[in-house]
Amino acid sequence: xxxxxxxxxxxxxxxxxxxxxxxxxxxxxxxxxxxxxxxxxxxxxxxxxxxxxxxxxxxxxxxxxxxxxxxxxxxxxxxxxxxxxxxxxxxxxxxxxxxxxxxxxxxxxxxxxxxxxxxxxxxxxxxxxxxxxxxxxxxxxxxxxxxxxxxxxxxxxxxxxxxxxxxxxxxxxxxxxxxxxxxxxxxxxxxxxxxxxxxxxxxxxxxxxxxxxxxxxxxxxxxxxxxxxxxxxxxxxxxxxxxxxxxxxxxxxxxxxxxxxxxxxxxxxxxxxxxxxxx
Amino acid sequence: xxxxxxxxxxxxxxxxxxxxxxxxxxxxxxxxxxxxxxxxxxxxxxxxxxxxxxxxxxxxxxxxxxxxxxxxxxxxxxxxxxxxxxxxxxxxxxxxxxxxxxxxxxxxxxxxxxxxxxxxxxxxxxxxxxxxxxxxxxxxxxxxxxxxxxxxxxxxxxxxxxxxxxxxxxxxxxxxxxxxxxxxxxxxxxxxxxxxxxxxxxxxxxxxxxxxxxxxxxxxxxxxxxxxxxxxxxxxxxxxxxxxxxxxxxxxxxxxxxxxxxxxxxxxxxxxxxxxxxxxxxxxxxxxxxxxxxxxxxxxxxxxxxxxxxxxxxxxxxxxxxxxxxxxxxxxxxxxxxxxxxxxxxxxxxxxxxxxxxxxxxxxxxxxxxxxxxxxxxxxxx
Lengths: 279, 382
Hints:
The complex is a heterodimer of chains A (279) and B (382). Chain A is an alpha/beta fold and 279 residues long. Chain A has one domain (2-274): HUPs (Rossmann fold, 3-Layer(aba) Sandwich), CATH 3.40.50. Chain A contains 6 helices and 16 strands. In chain A, strands 1, 8, 9, 10, 11, 12, 13, 14, 15 and 16 form a 10-stranded mixed β-sheet that branches. The N and C termini of chain A lie far apart (53 Å). Chain B is of the alpha+beta class and 382 residues long. Chain B contains 11 helices and 10 strands. In chain B, the strands form 3 sheets. Chain B has a 4-stranded mixed β-sheet with strand order 1-4-5-8, with helices on one face. The radius of gyration of chain B is 21 Å and the shape is globular. The two termini of chain B are 38 Å apart. In chain B, 51% of the residues are buried. Chain A binds chain B through residues 14, 16, 76, 79-80, 83, 210-211, 214-218, 220-221, 223-224, 257, and chain B through 7-8, 10-12, 14-15, 18-19, 21-22, 47-50, 52-53, 62, 64, 257, 260-261, 265, 267.
């Protein structure tokens, strides 16, 4: 099974330097930021790795190809994914500021046309743009079925058909999908028994985790030798058109930091009505 | 000259940080206060290969150097979890065994050190022989093919967690003259008793006095050449100093990050206290000092990994890191006001470990002696 996993780097919330908005409010600035893989993408990568390995024997049985769209130094995020176990990477050089979700989907379509993966598994959204659009548009452009918000994936025929549980506000929807398909994931995909591939023993449980697997030292050393192809949208034959224009950015108002202690639930309700005016 | 770390080193730091993050300061404090070892964290870091980065690849390690092991030490401490046994198990014992162990000893011990499943601790200090290792009175004497060890060691870190102890003892050398030799002694060997030393220190690793009462050690547990133990020990001591420096740098980073965050959030008289130079400058000064210490630590590790003489740089790095860590912890405590001394914030608990780094693994005074004698060519003072 060959899986394409699109990943994006986002500002690391643990870093003291935060996202800022330019003086004229036209763009978000990235000076001094440190980066990490978009958590939703990390979960998808974990799901893709589970689909393409024997989890008990820790051997690879398929191929995971990473793709990121961004500046040259976004290669570091791809290298992180290669250290976790993906086979190779593709960096589509682009300026973050000049992209929108439609362009991302169009570039990804060009990559899919070239790579011909069995599945695209991607984060449902990024934690910076929060658009939740690219996966859906990609499926539409490809004419592929879409299974979004996947909380569990099961296949026993190398990804040709998948049973997908989708996490919705109203409950869990279970569907059967015939590949090739686009899948977006929710955080429940990290649960110990959420991914079944017919190779990893059915009773095998992955460890409880809040994110994707950690890269081991051996993984980091192996990643050094894995290729990252650098391409451009033009070299892929894609001419993505921007359809969204951002009018203005502003940061949320700073929190007051004031804390009021109350003695009882009654007092809390009263203050939420009279002081905070939220009830 | 290039001060940029390699992509692998950046990833190594990132992954160690990621592994340590879910544990964090709260985990460390809970374990330390309960007097329990940090098994969960140790195993998590070890199973991913980061405890054995300096162990040869041929024995399951990472095949990298003390530079990378120092990064592991610094990142763990910067996450609020200084792992003291990194200094001892992979740094001293791993280095000495990889350099001087027999093939059988290397096959037996190095794979476990590489994954962290085996812990070795190091016993050199004695009640009457602290910094003066020439006065070591623990004696190993021949008894048939075996050796019998007799004597007392103290301030031995983590002796309760160890599988075996690398012990420095006096022996007759191969030329018949007295010398020192190294022995790997099982932690549960008959005749060896361990007594904990109560410490005023919030640390997960405990300190022990070890009594050797004719402990029988088979001949194949002698490490290296008999009588050449001191030269062998010195090969392991520079990595220990470098790892100690890295741990101090990590503690300083943790303290400064907590201090800066608090100074930016805590508002008195209508503005964050970090706007006042009385608060900001001590933090800034400590930041400069820790970055200087980190530079010297990197240099010392680089020299060691190149096979060059790292003694001066390792001593200077350990000195600078201990001073920087203390300055950083003190500034962070002052910034936090009363909260700085609270259990909840866990800042004051950093002070004990930072203060210990001014004493161990080599004291500030012995470093100054070394620098005076070897760097400045002054007469030997002791």
